[in-house]
Amino acid sequence: PVGFTDLDPEGMLIEGFDEMGTMATIYNYPYYVDHMKRLGFEKEVDWIEFRIAVPDSIPEKFQRIGEIVAKKYNLRVLKFTSRDKIRKEYGHAIFDLVNEAYADLYGFVSLTDRQIEHYINVYIGVLRLDDVTLVVDQDDKLVALGIAMPSMSEALRKSRGKLFPFGWYHLLRAIKGHTDVVDLLLVAVKPEYQSKGVNAIIFNDLIPRFNANGYKFAESNVELEGNESVQKQWEYYEHRQHRRRRAWKKEL
Questions:
Q1: Residue from 123, 142, 111, 77 nearest 3 by CA
Q2: Could you check whether the bond before residue 191 is cis, i.e. omega within 30 degrees of 0?
Q3: Which residues have a Cβ under 8 Å from the Cβ of 239 and sit 6 or more positions away?
Q4: Contact 250, 44 (CB under 8 A)
Q5: Fewest 10 Å CB contacts: which of 20, 147, 169, 201?
Q6: Could you tell me which residues come within 8 angstroms of residue 142 by beta carbon, excluding any fewer than 6 positions away?
Q7: What is the pTM of this model?
Q8: Are the CB atoms for 184 and 151 separated by under 8 Å?
Q9: Cβ(206)–Cβ(63) under 8 Å?
Q10: Biggest CA-to-CA distance, the chain
Q11: Residue 5 confidence (pLDDT)
């Protein structure tokens, strides 16, 4: 299973059936894997997911890297208190950056303008702006972003997938941050700034805010198994790889 865009759920669950998934992923029973193998399908690509403990403070090395990189490339963090303002000033820029940063990833298809408008309306309206970090250059051009939101998983479980009669209550509480888990929805860096430590700037801003909001754990969501540059950033934190998903292939 591969979505039409990189923002759609990807991969059949093959490990971590006893772990609660995120809102951005799908669940299937373990016997699905047996069916695929019996039908002659083989691994095409795997995605893995991590559960990361939110540290009480920014790791010293990470903080130092962020400060050095920000100064070297004249970068700064941009925060917003208005959804309309972030939508008007950086809505398209956010997804243009996603198109650039994810262009070489497996199965990625660039978002069209129509799709971008759809995702702007879907995502920006429900985000806690505290959990959104934009990094801009000296000309206020977007070079990196980190977008997270409170986990909706427990709320969706309690609501049994229904808004009424009481499902809305659990979902509203989760949106307002009554959870100790935060989902990392998007982390993207312009290609020319990748592998230069810009991610440290993002998490140096987010970690104190995660602590202030009471988040104890972060869910990475899916990362390609071979994307070592993304996975290396978790080495500074207590973490565990707890779910794996797969796209299958069969030669005909």
A1: 111
A2: no
A3: 50, 51, 52, 53
A4: no
A5: 169
A6: 90, 93, 94, 96, 97, 134, 135, 136, 190
A7: 0.89
A8: no
A9: no
A10: 56
A11: 77
Lookup result for tokens 């997804």: 95
Tens-place pLDDT, residues 151-174: 988 888 888 878 888 787 888 888
Look at residue 24 in the predicted model and tell me its pLDDT: 86
In angstroms, the CA 3 to CA 105 distance is 13
Taking Cα atoms as reference points, which of 116, 131, 101 lies closest to residue 209? 131
Q: What is the mean pLDDT of residues 215-222?
A: 95
At 173-194, the pLDDT tens digits run 887 778 999 999 999 999 999 9
Q: Which of 122, 93, 159 is nearest to 24 (CA)?
A: 122
Cα–Cα distance for residue pair 128/221, rounded to 1 Å: 18
Does pLDDT of 235 surpass 80? yes
Determine the length of the chain.
Answer: 252
Cα dihedral 222, 225, 231, 235 sign: positive
**Pairwise CA distance, residues 134 & 141, whole Å:** 10
